[in-house]
């Protein structure tokens, strides 16, 4: 009671026993802690619609329904954009006023010529650029939020874990705040029966100066976890064996002999070039639906910021229970020290002082341009002069990812194939070009103010020029060539799995595939982060392999597709679907089912969304056979739905899926 008095006339957050969250000004309370809130609202959390704020005004909450009541830190809270927070992920770092908004403002004012090119323009003030620092006060606020979500009457463990992880990222190394966040994470691991991770976090807490006064609690949890683990180990040998065989089964290989010098590509594929298509990929033999023809590793990749407290920033593995923080920035977290060191060597040494600002003011496209440039610089062992000499003497017309000997290639050779990706520079209008100069200039400014590139660029004009050129080049190659990486996420409300995009990547070979609104191949992200290209309907010898850039004729009208493709990819699509104006899915004609038989697509779909590997493996050969029988007849509704089902079965067997389904049974919905 005496605690509550100090909250009167302050903003409080209340979590009720049924998991609801109310925020408002505490006007008063009685002896049974019935409370009166003024100017209040409820925060309604939804898996699909983010966080909605429902205004309630003057509101009374019964004391026996209150689980937690705490004062809100308004300075932190006011910065949150609830409409933009997907509930299943972390808060996005992107702010409402960013580089794009500043550019637009300057463009409208006609002030752009000087502002965009002048590196002394007022970016710092207008975009509130500032160095990222550890902050124990923020770590405490996040930990408190985690504690509220952990409360036995709330039990939102996954969200609590993300708060603790972010608290760990903000905390200073060796601080009590770091130690307590690790200990709190161990408490959730215990609740979710992740006893090994529980013990690991207890060790991390102790190594990080865990306070003596709280030690007995930790020791008790340690004993309990050890006991539970011992019990489980006695029962689990058979489960371990089953898991092992599952992993071996899912190894995917090319359907044909790999090319001797390009082992990631089937030997039947070739690169061609024409005025109309630029470079494009053809096959010198007939291909069947289900054939795997490319399996490629990315040159560079970038985890989306909303996964920063869920996955390792380097290898992208989901490891929400054991992430460890970069000791300088508050964004990057890793699964192991090894990943942390690799990331640092490959790109994070340049990105660490600027990455928080990058995510705050930009979207993933400029962030991916930065990642491509930093990865490229490390490919040249951070020697910008050597890089400049190499690239200035490079004959770009001779670089060919399909004829280069990848078995002998070093990191510099591989970068050559990225350097020559399409920029579409000649098709960009003035505003577009100026926008990219503007973004590249901001990134350049951040890099040369805050990283070791500062010294290099001050002393070496060549290096300075090269850095700006690379940033400008890749702000253009990225929107044309970047690929999304996916995994399957469990949706507790519908109890099904959905495809989610967790990262972006640059694949120089995959980037040679052109688009069709009626594609004949598809891509899937494999568990190890590589990407596979799979044929989805028969392709005759000499035919072109067509990917789809997100504009399928089943889903969008020709006008919508062509407008979007022209805007992002700068070409007028004249694919078979555009030329023949193929209908949307629900208007497609049927095949002759009396001749080819039929599949019950809705029933198969209902089975596949349950995500059972056995079922998917059983269906794959049937779907593949059917696709090869009917695939020449296009467009037909059966062909399109069978392609979807086939892809889904493939994804179940070869794509990674989130472990979260396992945890939801311990949480309140
Ligand atoms: C990922 S690249 C594909 C490879 C590209 N042709 C090259 O030479 O690097 C995407 C670019 O290829 C071109 N492109 C892709 N599909 C096309 C199509 N169906 N017709 C004409 N150009 C296409 C566009 O310039 C597009 O921006």
Automatic annotation (TrEMBL):
Q: Does the keyword Manganese apply?
A: no
GO BP term, example: mRNA splicing, via spliceosome
Instruction: Tell me the GO molecular function terms.
Output: N-methyltransferase activity; protein methyltransferase activity; RNA binding; S-adenosylmethionine-dependent methyltransferase activity; zinc ion binding
Sm domain mapped to chain residues: 1-75
- Identify the residues that the record assigns to the MYND-type domain, covering every copy: 312-352
* Every SET domain range: 267-550
Which terms are listed as keywords in the entry?
Acetylation, Metal-binding, mRNA processing, mRNA splicing, Nucleus, Ribonucleoprotein, RNA-binding, Spliceosome, Zinc, Zinc-finger
Q: Which domain of life is it from?
A: Eukaryota
Q: Indicate whether Ribonucleoprotein appears among the record's keywords.
A: yes
Matching entries from Pfam families are given as: LSM, SET
Q: Name one GO cellular component term.
A: spliceosomal complex
The cellular location(s) given in this protein's UniProt record come to: Nucleus
* Function according to Swiss-Prot or TrEMBL: Protein-lysine N-methyltransferase. Monomethylates PRMT5, modulating its transcriptional activity. May also act as a histone methyltransferase. Plays a critical role in cardiac development. Acts as a key epigenetic regulator of gene expression during cardiac development via its dual activities as a methyltransferase and negative regulator of HDAC1. Plays a role in pre-mRNA splicing as component of the U4/U6-U5 tri-snRNP complex that is involved in spliceosome assembly, and as component of the precatalytic spliceosome (spliceosome B complex). The heptameric LSM2-8 complex binds specifically to the 3'-terminal U-tract of U6 snRNA.
Subunit architecture = Component of the precatalytic spliceosome (spliceosome B complex). Component of the U4/U6-U5 tri-snRNP complex, a building block of the precatalytic spliceosome (spliceosome B complex). The U4/U6-U5 tri-snRNP complex is composed of the U4, U6 and U5 snRNAs and at least PRPF3, PRPF4, PRPF6, PRPF8, PRPF31, SNRNP200, TXNL4A, SNRNP40, SNRPB, SNRPD1, SNRPD2, SNRPD3, SNRPE, SNRPF, SNRPG, DDX23, CD2BP2, PPIH, SNU13, EFTUD2, SART1 and USP39, plus LSM2, LSM3, LSM4, LSM5, LSM6, LSM7 and LSM8.
Q: What is this protein called?
A: Protein-lysine N-methyltransferase SMYD4
